[in-house]
Amino acid sequence: MHIGIMSQGAIASILAWRLQKLDLPYCVLSKRPLHPVQIETLEGEADMVLPPGCNGKIPDVLLVPLKAWQVMTALEPLAAKLRQTNTVIALMHNGMGVAEQVHALLPDNPLLAITTRCGALRIESQRIRLTGTGLTQAGAVANISEPHMAQLSELFSRLLPPFEWQQDINQVLWDKLAINAVINPLSALYQCKNGELLQPRFDLLHEQLAAEIAAVMDTAGVSRSAAQLLASIRAVEQATAQNYSSMNRDVTAGKPTEIDFINGFIKQKGAATGIATPLNNELVELIQDGKPPRW
Ligand SMILES: NC(=O)C1=CN([C@@H]2O[C@H](COP(=O)(O)OP(=O)(O)OC[C@H]3O[C@@H](n4cnc5c(N)ncnc54)[C@H](OP(=O)(O)O)[C@@H]3O)[C@@H](O)[C@H]2O)C=CC1
Ligand SMILES: CC(C)(CO)C(=O)C(=O)O
Prior knowledge:
Blueprint: E1 3-6, H1 10-22, E2 26-29, E3 37-40, E4 46-49, E5 61-64, H2 71-75, H3 79-83, E6 88-92, H4 98-105, E7 111-116, E8 119-124, E9 127-132, E10 136-142, H5 146-159, E11 163-165, H6 169-189, H7 203-219, H8 226-239, H9 246-252, H10 263-273, H11 278-289
Parallel strand pairs: 1-2, 1-5, 3-9, 5-6, 6-7, 10-11
Antiparallel strand pairs: 3-4, 7-10, 8-9
Helix pairs in contact: 6-7, 6-8, 6-9, 6-11, 7-8, 7-10, 10-11
Bound molecules: NADPH dihydro-nicotinamide-adenine-dinucleotide phosphate (NDP) and ketopantoate.
Keywords: NADP, Oxidoreductase, Pantothenate biosynthesis
Family: Belongs to the ketopantoate reductase family.
Pathway: Cofactor biosynthesis; (R)-pantothenate biosynthesis; (R)-pantoate from 3-methyl-2-oxobutanoate: step 2/2
C-alpha cells in the first residue's frame, strides 16, 4: 500500500516522520518544493524527516491533514486523476461539512474521516514539535469496503496509536465539533489559553453554547444533553489548560480560521432545521470580522 501525504504541515510532518520510522512506502504532495523537517519528539530529541515527493504518482491512500478550508482547493486539481483510481481519501481536519463536498467531487472514491488527539506545533518554518499523543479514531464516510477497513485499521494502529475504528464516525465528529465550537472561538476572542476558559466569568457562555449545540446535534440524530457536552468541554479545557487552541494561534498569526466549518457549520445546520443558534452566529461574525466580544 503506497501512502501519500498532502502537505508539509504540522500534522502532515508527524505522519511523514512516523511513516519514515516504520519504513513504509510514502510520498508527499506539496504546493511548494519539499524541504527537510526537524521533528522534536516528546522526549525532547530531534529527528529529521526528508520526505520523497510523489512526482505525479497517485498513491493508494491519500492522507489529507489540511485546514478545513484548504481541502477542496487542494483536491480539485487532482480530481480528474483521482476519479480514475480507487485511491482512499483520508480527511483529517477540525470542523465538519468538508467530507460532503469531497464526496460530491469524488463520488466513487473510498472516503474516510479521521480525528486525532495527537498534537503538533510548528515552532519554526522547518521545525515541528510533537506536543502530545492521544486517541486517533477513523470511520467510513463513503465506499469503504470490509478489506479497506481491515487494511486501514492496521495502518493507523501502527501510524497513530492508540487507534480505534468507529462504526459511526459522525457521532465522534459531532462530539469533537462541540468541543471546538466552544474552546476555539472563546480562546481566540479572549486571547487566552484553553485552561483560562474554566474561570466562572465564562460559565454562562459555555452553558448557552452547549444548549444551542445539543439542540442542533439532536436534529442530526446525535443525542447529547447540554450537561454531557459541558462535561466533555470542561475535561478538554483541564487536559489542555496550558495550550493555545488552533483558532487562537490562527487569529494571533492573522491567518484564516476554521470558524466556517465549526460554529459556521452549527449555524448552517440550525438554520436548516429551525433551531435558533444566536450565540454561534455571533461567534462566527466576531471571528470573521476580527471584532472584540461584547460580553
Ligand atoms: N496541529 C495539531 O495539533 C492538530 C491539528 N488538527 C487539525 O488538523 C488539520 C491540520 O492542522 P495542522 O497540521 O496544524 O495545519 P497546518 O497549517 O500546519 O498544515 C496545513 C498545511 O497544508 C499546506 N497546504 C495548504 N494548501 C495546500 C495544497 N493545496 N496542497 C498542499 N499543501 C497545502 C499548508 O501550507 P501553507 O501554510 O504554506 O499554505 C500547511 O503547511 C486542521 O484542521 C487542524 O485543526 C487536529 C488536531 C491536532
Ligand atoms: C481540542 C482543541 C481545542 C485543543 O486545543 C483543538 O482541537 C484545537 O485547538 O483546535
